[in-house]
Every structure is written in structure tokens, then in C-alpha cells.
Amino acid sequence: MLSAQKLINLKDGVMRQRYVDAPVEEGYVDEAPTTSRVVERAAWSPAQIIGLAGGVVLIVIGAIALSRTGTDFSNIPATHAAVAGFGFTCLSAAVQLAGGLLLLGASAFPASAKSAMAFVGVLLVAWGIVIVADVTRLFTVWGYTKNTGVFYIIVGGVLLVAAAVSPIFLSSRREVSRRPALR
Fold it and tell me: What would the DSSP string read from start to end of 77-122?
């Protein structure tokens, strides 16, 4: 009895195909050998889409704020700017830009998207609460206003909920076909 296999594997579960020629079982001589093919597609999660959107929002607002404040980190209190009703300095704009890039990069894979969304979401909610609670102390160095704190609480909350409820979808399909017997 002979059996052959052909495996195609791409890293990180992107696509795997397996062909197996199964031998004829004893007692079933007139039955032709079967070929089984299993195709596994990449796992995905709605968390990836939400993480991508959250990362893009943080990046766009942070990049606009950084372009308006400049990159003079020697005199941070002099670099105040407002973007979409939120206050920033060059330091807070750079930190937001880095957080958005982290979230965007982690959204490539479902498990890392969920983990990064939970991590960044907790940080945003906690930092937003600190900003809302004591905005006067944080205005000089960070340039934050109460609107910025509320924005961080909302974005962080959305990221946390999405990370908690988003499933990871796995898909595979199996096809079995029969070959005609050779004479």
C-alpha cells in the first residue's frame, strides 16, 4: 500500500493545504483511493478591525498635533496646540502617536490585537481619569484639557469592550474526492 502527502505551509497560519492519498482498505478492492484536501485559512477577529481604526485615529490626531506643536522638546510648556478640540504639547502628541503605532502594528494578528487593545485600553481609561480629575496640573507639561481626558476614557473603554467580546474565527475546509481506478 502506498500513500503520498503534499504539505503547503505558510508561516502564522496564513494558508495550509494538505493532500493525502489514502490507500484502499482491505476488503474493499473495487473502491478507488480517495484524495483528502484540508485548507486552513488565516484566523481573524473583529478586534483587528477595531484595533486598526483606534490606532489610525490616535495616529492621525497625534501626528497633526505633533506637526502643530513642533518637536522642540527643550521647552515643552511653550508648545501648546489644539487639534479637534483636544489640547496637546509636543510630548503628549509624541506619546499618543507612539500608542497609535503600537495599536496599529499589533492589529496584524488576532491574538496580539486583542492583547494590545486590552493593554492600551486600560492605559487610556486610567490616564483619561487622571486627566479629568486634575487637569490643571497636567496642562503645563502635557497640554491636556478636560476634553482630551474624556476622549481617552471613551476610546479606552471601546478598546477594552472590543477586546473582551471579540471572538477569534478559525476556518478550515475538507474536501474528499475519488480518483478513477487505473487499469
Answer: GG--EEETTEEE-HHHHHHHHHHHHHHHHHTTSHHHHHHHHHHHHH
pLDDT band of 78, cuts 50, 70, 90: confident
Residue of 174, 181, 141, 180 lying closest to 39 (CA atoms): 174
Tell me how far apart the alpha carbons of residues 51 and 73 are, in angstroms, rounded to a whole number: 29
Q: 16-30, 137-151, 154-168: which range is least confident on average?
A: 16-30
CA trace torsion 86, 91, 92, 97 (10° rounding) = 110
Q: Position of cell 474565527?
A: 169
pTM: 0.72
> In the chain, where are the structural domains located?
5-44+168-178, 46-165
How do residues 29-64 score in pLDDT, each as one tens digit?
445 556 666 667 778 889 999 999 999 999 999 999
Question: Residue 14 in contact with residue 42, Cβ under 8 Å?
Answer: yes
Classify residue 75 by its DSSP letter.
Answer: S
